[in-house]
Amino acid sequence: MKKIISTVLTLVISQTVFAEDKPQDLGIMNIVGVSPLGGSIDADKLPTSVQTVTSDKLEKTQTISLADYINRYLGSAHVNEAQNNPLQPDISYRGFTASPLMGLPQGLSTYVNGVRFNEPFGDSVNWDLIPQGAIDSMALYSSNPVYGLNTLGGSIAIKTKTGFSSPKHQIEVYGGSFGRIAQELTTGWNNGTWGYFLDLNHFEEDGWRDFSPTKADRAFGTLSWRGDKGSLDLTLGGNDNNMRGNGATPIQLLNENHKAIFTHYDETITRMFFSELAGSYDLTDNIEISGNGYFRQNRMKTFNGDNSDYAACDDDANLLCGETPVIDTKGNQIAFNNSIDGATRNSSATQMRGKGGTLQTAFTNDLFKHENNLTGGTSYDVSEIHYSADTELGSLTESRGTVGSGIFVDESKVRLHAGTETVGVFLSDTFSITDKLAATIAGRYNHITVDMKDQYINDAEKNLNGHHTFERLNPSAGLTYKLLNNVTTYGNYSESARAPTPMELSCADPDAPCKLPNSFVADPPLNQVVAKTWEGGLRGNLNKFVDGRMNWNLGFFHAINHDDIIFHRAGNLASQGYFSNVGQTRRYGIEAGTKVDKESLFSAIDDWHFSTNYTYLNARYLDGFNIQNPAHNDEVVQVQKGDKISSVPEHMFKAALSVDLWKKASLGMSGQYSGQQFFRGDETNMTKPLAGYWIFNGTAEYKFTKNFALFGKVNNIFDLRYNTFGVYGQASEVLGDKYDDGRFVSPGAPRAGWIGVRLSL
């Protein structure tokens, strides 16, 4: 705290520029991209849902990350804290997920400046890699096949800042609860031809739960050139993040101590290097060619201290057994002793290198004297993956940490080399049939190959070896019609797909379940998942009635996944199991929202902003299959048609209200409700679901000048206790027989506050 106060005083003393603030830009976007690489179209002509956010909004709401903003303000979006780390959330949109966790079906695609950011090994998304201060804008689209693999539910397209979009210099420092301290320096400049932007970010905290510190250092920058007809942007980024999130805890233990964890520590280290060269050139006033090329490397390490499902053999107490005697990596049976009783230390290292690029052409020529917007292109992505995993036997400390023995389990040792190659060809065309009626057709053809080679020398059978090919043409078609000058109706049908990942293909044998995120043991084939989505609705504005800005929307969506892939639990540990296709799943619902910006509501000094979103989401299985009984691991139960998909809340409601006073002070409050959800692993809906919860947050800011601001925020204002995620496990072997509930939950953070300063030039 002394460091924060010292930094703040230094910044205040050094502040010498005093001027009146200008009216705030509301940051409302009407033009959005039509592909990952960009392009542009009037958002009102899109026959699907799109939600956008600008850098100004991200700064004003004081969210810690883009995922945090999505959770609080965007419709049909939900975040759980399965990892219990602020930089590693699971984002869910319409029941489809983008998560850093292995084992979750990834149903959202993510892009940064047109570069795919889903990791090539498991399609997971590491939200910690991009600092919020480097983001210029973000668009959340509903299902559109042009955005490629994993766009089952939608896509997230992020555009970062340049010296032309953000030509200013700013430093922000804040600190407070949980020992959290953050500093961010952004600087941007241009002379009309050349420009640069740089973001340097440092974040660290002790965490509010036991043994949960996090530190993240991130850098992101762009060198830009602008000409009369063309542009070039060279973007470089990197990070060194060390994050501990100790996951779900037995509910009986949390009732005793809300900060308690089960076993520790769970650590994820990410070290990314990102480089991209992107450019565009106007061949004519109506034809633009654009493209990019990139190289991306991410080195990830994980460590998980856990309890053990190994014990002394029933027929020979001198040996260690699972279902059979356990063999070490030297080929010997392992003798049982206290140093290997009760704990496992699971570690993995994943090195992923990806490169590729996209080339597209946009035509805005009229067709038959009607406005027409045509974009077509092709993309190529290739990746190389080196994955290793080990399980070391150990024992538990009094605080349920782990102590290693130096003995490693042979069946859990993995050395896997994998490569993926993806070719995509896409097209999107919007044709204005009349001034009021517009038709959009789009599609993308994907061809994916996955090669896997088992590199573990002791594995004579080479069970992980495999070559897989997937391909599909995914179409989309829709209409928009302007019923009134301020009311538009839309409807759309789309198909999108995702191919099984190398991680899923390496863990798909029911007779040889793996232990995520390691112990991959087999390579049976899986079918790719295909989502077929219908959506439609109304949207418009009531600006003339409120003498300001008021946008509203009301829509319906219906998506069926064919050959959906889920993770089946198989064993005593929640992370032990296998992937398989389970037939059809369905997600449908209703979403409604409003957004109001009203200047001078009660007097000349107050400007008000209000938004609300409600979603009803019904997610169910349409085909039956067998799973392990979550309460009794030795039993098999049947999932029936109509059972609800776990970890998906049925009702979501969000509201936010803020006021700006004298263009200097601002106060804001947001609230959100997340409905009840079934525990992960309880696909049969046998047990009581996780309860729904409300959460409220507040923000405040005062601008002494346009260059100096003091801000603060309070999360969970009413200090409510709530749980965002639930899963089943076994705690009695570690904690004792009285801890027999079987339910593990990830608790939400208690009330917390932070205060900081922002200087800008």
CATH architecture: Beta Barrel
Number of helices: 7
What is the fold-level CATH name, i.e. the topology? Maltoporin, Chain A
The profile of the biggest β sheet is: 22 strands, antiparallel, barrel
Which regions contain 5 or more consecutive residues with pLDDT less than 50? 1-29
* Number of E-type strands: 43
What amount of the residues lies in strands?
over 45%
Q: What would CATH call the class? A: Mainly Beta
Radius of gyration: 26 Å
Structural class designation: mainly beta
Terminus-to-terminus distance? 26 Å
Shape verdict: globular
Task: Write down the domain tally.
Answer: 1
CATH superfamily: TonB-dependent receptor, beta-barrel domain
Mean pLDDT: 89
Give the proportion of residues in helices.
under 10%
Indicate the topology.
Elements: H1 2-14, E1 31-32, E2 41-42, E3 50-54, H2 55-61, H3 66-73, E4 77-80, E5 90-93, E6 96-98, E7 108-112, E8 115-116, E9 135-142, E10 154-160, E11 169-176, E12 181-190, E13 194-205, E14 214-226, E15 230-244, E16 249-250, H4 251-256, E17 266-282, E18 287-307, E19 311-312, E20 320-321, E21 342-363, E22 372-396, E23 402-408, E24 414-432, E25 437-454, E26 466-484, E27 487-498, H5 502-505, E28 514-515, E29 529-541, H6 543-546, E30 549-562, E31 565-569, E32 576-581, E33 585-599, E34 606-621, E35 625-628, E36 636-639, E37 651-661, E38 665-674, E39 693-705, E40 708-715, E41 723-728, H7 732-735, E42 743-747, E43 752-760
